[in-house]
Amino acid sequence: MIDKIDGFNISLNKKSSRIVEISISEEIINKLIFPFNKFDITALEYKPFTRFTIAKSLDDLTKNRLSKLLNKILRDRKKGCFIIKPNKIFSKIDDIFLVKLSTAVAYLVGTPNHDAMAGKYYARFHVKHEDNSDSYLRKAYINMDLHTDGTYVKETTDWLLMTKIEEKNVKGGQTIMLHLDDWEHCNELFKNPVGRKNFVWSSPKSKNIDYKVEHPIFFKDNKGRPQISYIDQFPEPKNMKQGNFLQNLSDSLEQSKNKILIELPVGSIIAANNYFWLHGRKAFVENRLLSRELLRLRGSFFCKN
Fold first, then answer.
1. 65-75 vs 49-60: helix axis angle to the nearest 10?
2. By CB neighbour count within 10 A (0-12 exposed, 13-18 middle, 19+ buried), where does 118 fall?
3. 266 Cβ partners below 8 Å, 6+ apart?
4. pLDDT at site 204
5. How far is CA 33 from CA 26, 54, 302, in A?
6. CA–CA separation, 230 vs 200, rounded Å?
7. Which residue of 16, 20, 189, 221 has the fewest C-beta atoms within 10 A of its own C-beta?
8. CA distance 292 to 89
9. d(CA 47, CA 43)
C-alpha cells in the first residue's frame, strides 16, 4: 500500500515497482521558500547544523511523515529507491533551491560524507561536449557502466542521492538502474569465493583521495543476502583470478536484461540504497552545445536511537 502525505503524490514507477515516485505540489514548494531563504549556500557549507534546520522545515510540512517514508523506502530490500520531482518546473525552482531541497532530503535519511572531489558535503559537476577529466563521470559519449559509489573511500556509503540541476541540448544519457535481486547472475557471482576476498581500490587524481582501500566486492547483509561495492574503473586486480572475475562481473551486469532505463526531467532527485542498487548512464548523442549539471550527495544512515 502506498503511503499518503498531503501535498505529495506518491506512486510506483511505471518501469519498476521497486522505485517509488514522489511528486511535490506547488503549495509545498511555496511553503519551503521562506525557510530555505533563511540560509544561503555558504551557511549550509560552513555550518552543518543549518542543513538539519532546513531538513526539519521540509519534514514539519508533512508532520514528520516524509522522513519516515524516505527511510522506509531506502532501507527496504524490496524497494530501496525513490525519485522526488515537482509536478512541473516552477519558476521559483532555480539551482540554489534545488541544492537546498536536495540537502533537506539527504539530511532526512542520514549524514552525507565529505566529498573530496568538491571539498564540500556535496559535489556539483558538468557533463559537456569536450572533457579532459580522468574519470568516466564526465565522459559524455561513453557509457558509464553499472556501479556503486564510495568504493575507494574509507567512509560508509549507505546511500546515494543525485539531482539533475540543468540539461540543455541533450539526447540520450538516460539513467540506468539495476537491483541486485533482479540481476540474473547475482547468486552465481556472489557465491564465487574470489568476489568475497579483498580487492585493492584506488582512484584518479581528480577524486583528491591520496590513499587506497581494501574490501571485497560482495558481502552479506544482516539476513545473509548479497550486497555489493563495485565500480569498473577503480579496482586493482593483483592476479589472473581477480582480473577474470572482474571481467565476468562487468559483462554479466552490462548484459542483464533487467536493467531499467529512466528519463529524469530537470529538477528530479533520485536516491538509492548503495549496497543493492547499481546505477549507470547511457552515452549521449554528440552535440557541441550539450550541457548537463548534476548534484551528488552520498553518505550513511542515521544510527537508530
1. 110
2. middle
3. 89, 164, 165, 166, 167
4. 85
5. 11, 10, 26
6. 11
7. 221
8. 16
9. 6
pLDDT for position 92: 60
- Comparing CA positions, the residue from 287, 302, 7, 296 lying closest to residue 124 is 296
- Average pLDDT, 10 consecutive residues per value, the chain (305 residues): 84 96 93 95 98 98 96 97 81 85 98 94 94 81 96 96 96 97 98 98 90 97 97 96 98 98 94 98 96 97 76
**Hey, what domains does the chain have and what are their CATH numbers?**
8-180+256-301 (3.60.130.10)
Contacts of 55 (CB under 8 A, 6+ apart): 67, 103, 104, 105, 106, 107, 108
Please report where in the chains the cell 584506488 appears, as a residue.
Answer: 202
Q: Which residue has the cell 540474473?
A: 184
Q: Which three cell numbers stand for residue 164?
A: 539533475
Query: Position 132: which residue type?
Result: N
Grid coordinates belonging to 257: 536484461
The single residue listed with the C-alpha cell 574490501 is: 215
Name every residue whose Cβ is closer than 8 Å to that of residue 202 and which is 6 or more positions away in sequence. Answer: 152, 212, 234, 236
Q: Which residues contact 59 (CB under 8 A, 6 or more apart)?
A: 66, 67, 108
Global pTM?
0.95
